[in-house]
What we know:
Elements: E1 2-3, E2 10-18, E3 26-33, E4 39-40, H1 42-54
Amino acid sequence: MMECPRCQGLMVIDTFLNNEGVRNTAWAFKWRCLNCGEIFDTQTLANRNACQHKVTFQHTQKVA
Length: 64
């Protein structure tokens, strides 16, 4: 069993329809949390990691 990284709930494998175009329609298997609905798969994880690297925060504090 897998634990949800967001709410620590139970995750189950679910099937999703992957619509990348009319000719490339296929079923995809992904993890889905029964509590919060979080969907987890390798593509989602890669996209989130790519977005996190683009956003950087700089905190500067001036000391008098």
